[in-house]
Amino acid sequence: MLPFPLVYHDGYDLKFGAHVFPSQKYRLIRACLIDEYIAGPEDFLTPEQATVEQLQLVHTPDWVAKLQSGKLTYHEILKLEVPYSRKMVEAFFLAAGGTLLAARQALIHGIGFNIGGGFHHAFAGHGEGFCAINDMAVAVRVLQQEHLIKTALVIDCDVHHGNGTASVFAHDPSVFTISIHHFNNYPTEKPPSTVDIHLGDGVGDQEYLEKLRSAYDTAVCGFRPDLVVYVAGSDPYYDDKLGGLSLTREGLYLRDRVVFDAALRQHVPVAVTLAGGYARKLEDTVTLHMRTVKAALASYQEFGWKSDAD
Predict the structure, then answer these.
(1) Distance (Å, rounded) from C-alpha 97 to C-alpha 280?
(2) What is the pLDDT of residues 224-251, one digit of tens each?
(3) Count of domains observed in the chain
(4) Structural domain of 39
(5) C-beta of residue 54 within 8 angstroms of C-beta of residue 42
(6) Which CATH number covers residue 212?
(7) Is residue 115 situated within a structural domain?
(8) CB contact set of 251 (below 8 Å; sequence gap of 6+)
(9) In angstroms, how far is CA 53 from the centroid of its own chain?
(10) What confidence category does residue 310 fall into, taking pLDDT thresholds of 50, 70 and 90?
(11) 0.85 exceeded by the pTM?
């Protein structure tokens, strides 16, 4: 049994069919974690959909209503880059509920891990780039509203800039956002995060890890957030179809350890979302996401968990 919970729902599969976003990966990750005896069925919690009231702490009532009713414009669907369906909307609402549940569990156990989520291109009033609801922002705002946290740090290690998250939290001193990404890549417009680490084409393990560690360690120690939200995209992988960086499997594992180690060392809980992953071989994407669970476990075993409130 894992010392921290995993959050999963069969409804996470957005049922896109033949699409570059392999949403079947969530089901495969869960199955492989069990098959390899990394986790058991008892380690998984089942989330509920985020409520309309929770979603509207981040998103405009108009955007939430459009998603529920299906009355998106042609331009809005083009911007989303995914086919609209009721199943798609349900999956995004579940992902937001899942990240919220993972964040709640992180406050208790030190780590809470959503086998889904990470939809960082969703803005308050529209969606972009496969992202309709910004689940990380919803989780942070709900916990702040409930006075469970005051501050949060979002560390976005997806290969693409977290433009929606940066926009949602712009000018908010209670949320520190870091995005480390391939600069010459989607999205074209990159509203500023608190810290943006723009990486050139083909950057590999050493440069990536040095720049991540320098910015992130400083932020965790200096900002001292009540919660870290980790956007753990596997798409910086060298064989990713939508990438542009050159991280190896070992480099991605060490990236994960940097994030978990620095937070747990400072007694800061971590909520994890998986975000993007588009490796040419689907099994590589599944393996890379599974290794993030392994990295979380290794950090937990090394540093343990004791909150400052204990």
Answers:
(1) 30
(2) 999 999 999 999 999 999 999 999 999 9
(3) 1
(4) 6-303
(5) no
(6) 3.40.800.20
(7) yes
(8) 204, 205, 208, 209, 236
(9) 21
(10) low
(11) yes
